[in-house]
Amino acid sequence: MALTGLEIYKQLPRTNCKDCGFPTCLAFAMKMAAGQVPLEKCPHVTAEAKAALEAASRPPIQLVRIGTDDNEIKIGNETQLYRHEERFYRPAAVAVRISDTLEESAIAERAEAIGRLVFERVGTQIKVNLVAVDNESAKADRFEKAARLAAEKSGLDCVLMSATAGNLKKAAAALPGTRPLLYISDPTEAEAAAGVAKDNDCPLAVRADGLEALAELTPKLTAAGVEEIVLDPGARGLKPTLEALTQIRRLALKSFRPVGYPTIALTTQTDPTMQAVEASTYIAKYAAVVVTDAVEPWQMLPILTTRQDIYVDPQKPVAVEPKLNAVGEVGGDSPLLVTTNFSLSYYSVEGEVEASRVPAYVLAVDTEGTSVLTAWASDKFNAETITRALKSSQVEEKVSHRQLVIPGLVAVLSAGVEDESGWSVQIGPKEASGLPSYLKKQWKV
After folding, report:
1. pTM, two decimal places
2. What is the CATH topology of the domain spanning 324-441?
């Protein structure tokens, strides 16, 4: 049972030293009781108090690490039910499934395709994290070979999925020192699988039929020496799985320790489009690991985009550095396009300029990371800010003309920009998608 703020306060030094970043020890205790700060933030707490406060200092959802070194993935440690209240911190790991019933050549081909699922979006690389090897054959030797081949060809860490603890043991031994996530699908094998996880220093995902069964199982696993646990409530299908994941998150945040662990969700849809929809839904609420059969780039991009959007800070706009950027082999006659430093706005413009094959300068104006219309409405994208950006970028030294292109949505700014800056203004398309045609057919010095 979690301790109250007053119970925690009694164990603290109560000196109000402020070294923890809070004005009083009581304020720190209240934040700690809410699961928002760890005990380590108090530099003066005694060893006896640490022992007494251990239960309160543990986050409501256990931290679990998959993989090692630069490839290590951390899941868990979340403190919020609703993203807008603060944010979600540890992005869900996306795994693509490979069955060990496939021929070795097919396993290698699929693993290589999974390893290539890497995309660039708004200046950030997004990619698949794991390859999930499924022991559908129920054969240990085949499972071991598939695990080794999938890891080698994909370059990714593994989720090893089997109904038999003995098969997990053999496959885990084939990947020493990599800390794969072991997934046992048969609850009767869970305690045996816990021994495998402990011996190989691996996290363990367990399936049970419902929350009550999970709550009974996890204390047995911790007693066996496994702390890094991932939960599968056994539900299958979109609605039942979503409900189960939500219930687990609610209970965990209420400090019900038996389910205070990150979760794993397996997609079951056979329709390719619905595979992407189902995986994206589980990422939004509240899976920490999603295993899917979606292997085509057109399927995976929306899944990874959903993850990228869900795990950014909703209270902090995603912005690029406000500066002048050259796209392509620019010269003195190259167009000068003006936009805001909101990431999505900027990279939409940059991408369309690249697609047009017309080299151009793109000036990102500092609008505190807001989009064109939002910045215009809040008076952050106006004649003064555009002129200031022009001067600080020293673009007049790079182009032989004095003409710039502003977004068509804010054509009303043209006269003010011309008066303020002395540059001529051309009105560009309202949407970035219109830039290739505009640059090829309408732009001229």
Report:
1. 0.80
2. Rossmann fold (3.40.50)
